[in-house]
């Protein structure tokens, strides 16, 4: 008895509803990720380093070195979004 009810529901559901939900979820997570990245960037988690070039003695190299780790919450958001991409846009 449960099987026919399940099939009836599957046939009457909007055909792209699951995809739309995934895209909406990803859009929210991308906005969250942008906000986290901006907070991290504004905390100035880096130092600017100027060093002589190893390849050319008359040149200098400007580098940006992180002084703090990227927060786990930011990395987790990026990972969550990345894991959804193959489902929304398969190769």
Protein described:
This protein is α+β, with helices and mostly antiparallel strands and 91 residues long. It is built from three helices and two strands; from the N terminus they run ααββα. It has helices spanning 2-12, 17-42, 72-88; strands spanning 46-52, 60-66. A two-stranded antiparallel sheet has the order 1-2. A hairpin with a 7-residue loop joins strand 1 (46-52) and strand 2. Helix 2 packs antiparallel against helix 3. It starts with a helix and ends with a helix. The model has no long low-confidence stretch (mean pLDDT 84).
Short description:
59% of the residues lie in helices and 15% in strands. By secondary structure, the chain is α+β, with helices and mostly antiparallel strands. Strands 1-2 form a two-stranded antiparallel ribbon.
Features:
single chain; 91 residues; alpha+beta; two-stranded antiparallel sheet; 3 helices; 2 strands; 15% strand
Distance between the termini: 38 Å
Q: What order do the strands of the largest sheet run in, or round the barrel if closed?
A: 1-2
Which whole number gives the mean pLDDT? 84
Residues in helix, %: 55-70%
Largest sheet: 2 strands, antiparallel
Which descriptor suits the 3D outline?
Answer: elongated
Q: Report strand %.
A: 15-25%
Structural class: alpha+beta
Number of strands: 2
Radius of gyration (CA) equals 23 Å
Please work out how many helical segments DSSP would assign.
3
Order of helices and strands: HHEEH
User: Could you list the spans in which at least 5 consecutive residues all have pLDDT below 50?
Assistant: none
